[in-house]
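Lecture 7 notes. Example A: sequence first, then its structure tokens.
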Amino acid sequence: MPRPISRRDFLSRAVVAASVLATPRVRWRTVPARAPLRIAVIPSARTPDRALGIQLGVDEARHAATLFGGGVDVTVAAPNESLERAAPRLLAARPAVVLGGDTRAECDHLAELAQAHASLYFNVGCDDDGLRGAQCRRAAFHVCPSAAMLRQAVSETRAGGATAEAWDPALVKFGADTLNERFQKQFHRPMGAPSWCGWVAIKIAWEASLRARAVDGPSIGAFLETSSAQFDGHKGRALSFRLWDHQLRQPVYVTQARAAGAEPIEVPSSRAEEDARTSLDRLGTARAASICVWKT
């Protein structure tokens, strides 16, 4: 198997790519083609904005592929096609990653099918704690925050009438403003949590495939479990998946409904003496409290 690209090499190439893209008249050497990363998407009738985030992620991944090589091949189920009909059909083509599902039953069904077809399931819609606990599956990676993470964030802020989300369109630091601007410019609406989850899921899948030099689910999944698998989601801290339940480590944002225009509160707060993983593991289910035993 080819050696994975280190995070340092990956970032170095990204800097070079950014400088080239910023200079339209510069010509670059064509990168040898490699097999595309195949992704299957089950659209959500409940949260249609998620599809916009996925679209932005795919557009950006395809743009990056002109410099890094490869590509992204996305197959989307028809809007009126049921999950029961669409999922087996899409997974029969053995995509590396499948996204979709809104309810606990739908997400568990997709995770089960993905595991049976040697694909990965990226959960971008279900915050149900059971999917990270008694119903956890090795093939499932949970991009959206768990219900436990959201509850804990609200509890820590002690703010009445508050809600916690994975993203807020008012975020500015760490490049969040440019991401919000890109989304607003393309879709003429603010980027909310469902859109961010869809966008970062595609970004993680593409970058993991590139750095692992692989386009198959098992190889990408193995890379996501390594210590070098961390990603920038414009939240100021490196995002990574927990080994014990495959929940994406990330800060979340608490806002008060009564405080219009108030800056969202980030939870957990960053501490100078902690690295990103230690800091983010203060939010949600700790390793010692996890009841996840991989279902086969």
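Example B, a different protein, same format:
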Amino acid sequence: MRRSRALAGFVLAGLAVSGSRAAHAGANDINLLNLCTPGAQARNVLECTWVQRGTGGTITDVRPDDEAESRFRSLMSELGVVMAPRLLVPAETLGFAGFQFSAEVGTTTINHNQPYWNGVEGVSPQNPNGQRPDSWLTTVGMFVRKGLWLPLPAFEVGAGFMHLLDSHLMSWQGYAKFALHEGFYDWPLPSLAVRGSASYLTGTDQVRMTVTSVDVVLSKGFGLFKTSRIEPFGGWSFLWIRARSNPFDLTPSCDAYLVRTATPGTTLGDYCGGEAQRGTTNDYNANYGFPDQDSITRHRFFAGAKLKFSVVFISAQYELVPAGHTRDERRAIGARDGSGKQEGLSLSGGFDF
């Protein structure tokens, strides 16, 4: 009965998190239109400066500036770290009969003063100094973990979700952990485990992102006041961030359908680049998607501790991610990851059965 009540509580909390998201875009939602170079806009219309127009306003080409792909890569790198699977567990597994339910909250720094963070809702080509996201982005999540005997002893699997506050972004996650060494409590040897995890980002139609990681973690448990147990842990992660851009509209003020069905005498030319575009589908030529790039890789170092009393536990973790430096080798332009150092703090609490 106690397990059922705990599980029901976590499910209701998850529904509350999902239901609290407003239908409109949040300040932290992705808007790749804002990665274009700010500049003077004809007729004060929201239009990316990459759009090239010919005589009469007809769209002839889309030409991003030289640093556009690097800004996209840097944005995806820092966002990938924010939404990447965290550890928050020691090296020891739960045991083949063990279950764990947990709720988690984490906050991660971003370099919000950098131009690549224009790629969210808070700023725009016409308002480059608009409200940027906070320097710390906060996520909340829920997870379930289960110890197994197969396919190997000391094996554990887990799954859950994480939501970025003030956005529609959700990261759906799963992992598998294998303890190479555990259970020798009377020996001065730490437990050692490796973990593989993956996450998939939803909540945006502009980007497809997956983050996979390999973690190596060491931990050692100690009794505390004969009633509790504390397990400090630490380790290293290697992150692969694979981000793909979907097409997005560089002229959102122009409704292509409305232009195509326009009747003579309307003033749609003022909003769509000129009279030559009226009644045509020329606006579709302003749809653009960033070319595919090589995967982004980041290193992450973490340390924390788990405190358990009876079936209740709480874990805390600190993370440090050095600045990114990888380049895209697919194209001659060589988009560079210019992301900066990031730090994170995470807290998890729940029940071990």
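Note on Example B: The two ends are 12 Å apart (CA to CA). Confidence is low (pLDDT under 50) at residues 1-23, 40-44.
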